[in-house]
Amino acid sequence: MKELASLKSLLQVPKNIVITTHANPDADALGSSLALYHYLKGRGHNVLVITPTEYPDFLHWMPGNEDVLAFQEEMAETSNQIIDEAEVIFCLDFSSLNRIKSLEAPVRDAKAKKVLVDHHLDPEGFADFQFWDTTAAATAELIYDLIVALEGKKVINADIANCLYAGIMTDTGSFKHPSTTAKVHYTVASLIELGANVNQVSRNIYDTNSTNRLRFTGYALLEKLVVKSKLEVAYFVISREDFKRFNLKPGDTEGLVNYALSIKGIVMATIIIEREDEIRLSFRSVDDFAVNQFANDHFGGGGHKNASGGASSLSLEDTVKKFEKLIITYKEDYHSPAILQ
Ligand code: 5GP
Ligand code: MN
After folding, report:
1. Does the predicted TM-score (pTM) go above 0.90?
2. How far apart are CA 117 and CA 132, in angstroms?
């Protein structure tokens, strides 16, 4: 691995390093970033994690959370300066720069060496070093491989292990998705040996519901779930009013889409959410139905074969109409084993 040798020599002496990840970071995005943060700090580098947006409370337990700079417009000047002065920028868990929102321009223009570590399709090609593997279950799996390749397992402490474990656990849907290979289990076994606390991480992430959130889930299942059995599609439409009624926070709708996918015979599940500035869509599928292609073709998004997302600038009502029209024809277009990942 030529890239590895060059990266190793680049990191030989202490550097100013920025780590960034996609907007609305999930456990893989933040866990990978903080794991790498702890590793690089331990090697004497000056490191800062900058996220393009805030992230949900159930990720705040991650060690190093208090040191993260979550971007807000008021701090644009400071954040631009930090990015401009960085010597190395790690870009984790995204493949195109538009996924880092306001950080896109400063990162694109930065003179720093850029290192991409990711498992999404089609990297844009902005990085000087690419550790990119679409067969990886999580970016955290790649960060584990990278740290081991750079220095060996011995530098992975319990903090790093917990962050990486969180990323792999969530991106594999708790070791259920097809991406859950034997290698994933070997990696996770090693993380447990190195101090990952399986029960604690799982409870931190999955068992921190507010009563509101749980009641909202019940309401959504009862009143918001639309099932089109013949089309093998099920979906939720969540409005801003719903957010207000249940006092929801951004992360509170996470995972809801999986209930729709759990219905027998459903091939594609979707959640359509009315956010402040746009309509966000999340897609999930089983087997060979390529929702990344679907998201890309119709909602300017992407992701993985069985989990993707996109957006719409139409009204909520018009977005739903567009979606309902599309699913009538989807089978012929997307139900293709030829479309991989
Ligand atoms: P989620 O539905 O959980 O937000 O995202 C599911 C998957 O799709 C994740 O891997 C995420 O990175 C990807 N994804 C979500 N939204 C977008 C988007 O707008 N563009 C691209 N390229 N990928 C997305
Ligand atoms: Mn990921």
Report:
1. yes
2. 6
